[in-house]
User: Fold these one by one.
Assistant:
Number 1:
Amino acid sequence: MMRSIVLAGLLVLAGAQLPAQGVMVAPHAVFIDHNQRSGSVLLYNPGTEPVDVTISMIFGYPITDSIGRIQLDTLTADSTNSALGWIGPRERQTVRLLARPPVGLADGEYWLRLRIAAQAGSVPITGVSDTTAIQVGLKLEVRTIIGVNYRKGAVMTGVALSNLRAQIVGDSVITRARIARRGNAAFIGVIRETLVDSTGAVRAQRIGDSLITSYQSPIGVYFTMEPRLASAIPAPGLPRGRYWLRYEVVAEREDLDPKVVLKAPAVRDSVQLVIP
Amino acid sequence: MKRTWWIVTLAMLLGVPLVAQGKPLTVTGIRDVTFGAVLPGVPRVVLRTDPANSGQFDIKGPKGNVLLSFVFPLSMTGPAGALMPLSFGAGDAGFSQTQAIGSQVGFDPKQPFTATLSNSGRGSVFLGATANPATNQRAGAYTATIILNVTVLP
């Protein structure tokens, strides 16, 4: 069973410095253990101008829509237990999180999204200074949304893979598959796709200007999703023939501490692609 | 959703150390959308490829995907509550892994877009817009706020 959790943050001042503009949020995902019941997020304004920061919490998790695009599904209205403050120049602040779960909370994982909204204190309106003219300016506000996962007791995860399909569209390999989570915690890992030809040789794929042997996409499976992935085939494309697209979902993440990535068996499937 | 059984507490004095569970994420507003002089009755279009006037957000974070979505105002507010319509077309947003304005992948800013940061964890979002002043648009300063949501997945 999974539920959202409500955490509250408090800003505690400390000192720091760096020239730039914007607010740094670290880490980009928070995992809180029930035994500790607390976590922290560092906010840092490296600029010289104050930035107005608002912190709020929402409940949500990634889903895919009918065409496989990933979206954040916020099932409920915002729960704005917000802490409001100004991050002064060359200052940093730490948001400390403490959970007070109910007695008898079932083992499992509980989720929350922390939303950090930052807006520069004042943005000059651009345009001519003539008071008879029309002057226009647009302020920019950035909201960084990171996940908070609270784990109690024995948590386990895994995925089941089905309905894998693939097609080549232009210079891209497009895949979709149904990925259903198992266990009582979100599956956090990567999808890895490898294209092999009829001889078993791996065919390169492309990211930007780089050639890769496997295309990888991070994934978080909270319930069931069918993500659409598109990987590029290097020019001049694939010659006619039969190919296999190997598709695997593994519990590995380069961007997270391995301690917080729950172990789970990898799942694999493959699908044939024919280029006439 | 049953939430009432949660107790919310501020942990001001707890000495909880920051744990390196993930990497820092920084989203920086580099440049506003700049319309310059706007004439009554004459729409002013700023393309996302305009190096001087398009909006730009820089992202630096962990290698991987982030979900981008915008919240747009319908209009800008000016003197005495006067309004000026503002519009965003389906190709008014662009993403660049190399953070180069000349190598963007365009996307519809009204739809969520999953962006893949570069191997070094960088990317830039560019934004264009159209201001639509009326023929009898009141003179003065108009402003509005554009919100960019950057969601780390998962």
Number 2:
Amino acid sequence: MVPPVAPLPFFTRLWFAWVVFFKVLFDGLFAAKLYTPQLEAPGEADKPKLPEKPAEVVVEKVVERVVEKVVEKPVAGPPPTDAALQLLALLQREGRFVDFLEEEIASFSDADIGAAARVVHTGCRKALREHVKLEPVRAEEEGAKVTLPEVNPNEVKLTGNVQGKGPHTGVLRHRGWRAASISLPTAVAGHDARIVAQAEVEL
Amino acid sequence: MSSPRYVVGIDLGTTHCALAYAPIPADEAEPLPTPSILAIPQLVAQGTIEARELLPSFFYIAHESDGPQALPWDPQRTYVVGEHARARGVDAPARVIASAKSWLCHPSVDRRSAILPPGAPEDVERISPVEASWRYLEHLVEAWDHVVAKGDPELALTKQSVVLTVPASFDASARELTTEAAYAAGLQDLTLLEEPQAAFYAWLAAKGDAWRKEVTAGDVVLVVDVGGGTSDFSVIAAVDKGGELVLERVAVGDHILLGGDNMDMLLAHIVEQKMVAEAEAAGRSLELDRWQRISLQHAARGAKEKLLGDGTANSAQIAIAGKGSKLVGGTLRTEITREEVQQAIVDGFFPLVDAAARPATRARAALTQLGLPYAQDPAVTKHLAALLARHAEALPSSGTTSPKMLRPTRILFNGGVMKSPLLRERVARCIDGWLGEENVEGARVLEGADLDLAVARGAAAYGLARRGRGIRIRGGTARAYYVGIEGAVPAVPGMEPPVTALCVAPFGMEEGTSTDVAGGELGVIVGEPAIFRFFGSSVRRKDPVGAAIERWKKDEIEELAPIEVDLPAEGRAKGDVVPVTLRSSVTEVGTLLLEAVPLQPKKPDERWKVELSVRGNE
């Protein structure tokens, strides 16, 4: 019944969470659209209730998969998740990123969320700027008319009335971002990268 | 030993260290290289290494629960130097050493004994202020060898020509102890340089030959260096000597434990008060936990930099995270206005005062806990006024009346605090006010660059200047030194015997020179350490070697840690009294060397080193 959904790769999820987080925070309409179907569509809400058990199985599978990966580690060389975990730990350390995303925010007022967003924004921005040098893909101002003799599909996405052969002329809607350089902290041998933040016990 | 390939400048700061380096040009024709800054690998969090330009001068003694504090070059280390150590200073303060450098120049403690961290728990193995400095330097040595030398013994830092900076206010014993730490870290080719001078060298190097347009004969440059933990001032004069422009360091200030950290603490305190008041007004009670205090300090620093920056922002939002992992709902928020920061920092630490203002001192309680002698008056400008007045006669006066103060014509700022244009402007305005009182023109500000790293850069530039590439600042010792000789008078209860101060090294004694102290014959008992009182003066410029000073004005001569000579019994009977004279030298490294020379030597060239700063006064 339910189409088999492959879990998204970690980096994609991180990026997605990041984008959606700010979008929800600053775009009231977008947030409302996401928010409404969950609460006010009983017809649709009923359906997923049936395959509740299978859904749980899917969750378990994900866990299994992680375990499998851990087992494979020594064979495949350094696991590709470490860098992602480092970045996550960094964002948590400097900007309480994980704390923020893991907290239920529905019941809080905008003022409370705004205050917390300042903490997250200041810290994460500092961490991001220290470790990743970001530059726009296109140098033109957003809203400017641009003509593209050819389109590098990695760099530019055409939207709207997409047809015909180039050169394409259109309006730059988003300048894009390119990571010009990235320098992540290195973990020392024996460090457990899965610990994104240590528990703290005050004596 | 092979000849060094690099000159390396090390800024061993109270709160941060930095390292700059430049390759030594093979011949005169090559253009002068620009020093680069080494990114220093260090632990920045548990198990996480990052290379940063600044190495915080903090030392954390790891607890067994922390596990090994692995570095790429040492997987089993039990202590941490750098950013992680600083962060642990907030988490577990009893195990962290901060401001080791200020302890290094604390005359009332034994600086070679394991006293740090003060008040540490039983299981912490304490270390001495000298060892702490040694560990910071050791980290730099290892980091360099890991990043630059990469195993090539020729390129190891211990083989390079190193210039290490010290505060201008460091006395002979603090300098000596600094070199001890450097030798312990393995450095061999070592020279000391005063920090404000290093800042000036950085300015000279940045300007190239154009500096001669901005500083000409007759100019007096005041260097104002306000760092994280200390303030340090020096005055450098440009003098015409037979048609050639010579730079001379003519005055240095006292060691003032006052810096940017004090300002951040004050601001954090103000914001906390404000938050508590706001909460109470809303009928809640509020107490901040440790997490919140940390974020408050960061937030306060950020707000300070923003509001004291270019002057466009009128207020800054301060938000600090809630307790534990709860962020939303618990986040506290307030606003700090420009006026509040202005009042607290600009008026509190840099008040506009007249030239006659002096820092307030209050008598300390007799039984104060032994700690660092923090400045009692937070007004940087008052300390500055006191310095300029004290050295009023440092330069030959051209007019008929003697000036009330040393009059700067140029100001060079240095240190993280002075990055704020508002504060630079305030200091310059204050000094202009004083010059106005004397009816002379205001001073011009020399534009420096990157005030955090200028000292390290300047030290490397000086390393090149010492090799004949570029102008050097002359100065010699910033103090005159005296040995105290107690007069032979009958003991009177309740009266200290009068002390005569015998000048053993004059003010401005140059590197690489030595002199015999005439007229001061001392009797030393063989096999017993003889301890002498030791004094220094930064204002008595005219006392020649051998001058016996019987009376001096209060504050003119200050007592330093005592000195000790211990004659080995070889060739002499134990208990014999041997008459000796003193010989003083300023070494090429830049330290003062005192030696006792027997009047009747048993072997040619016999002499014994006099130890500076053997133990505390208490």
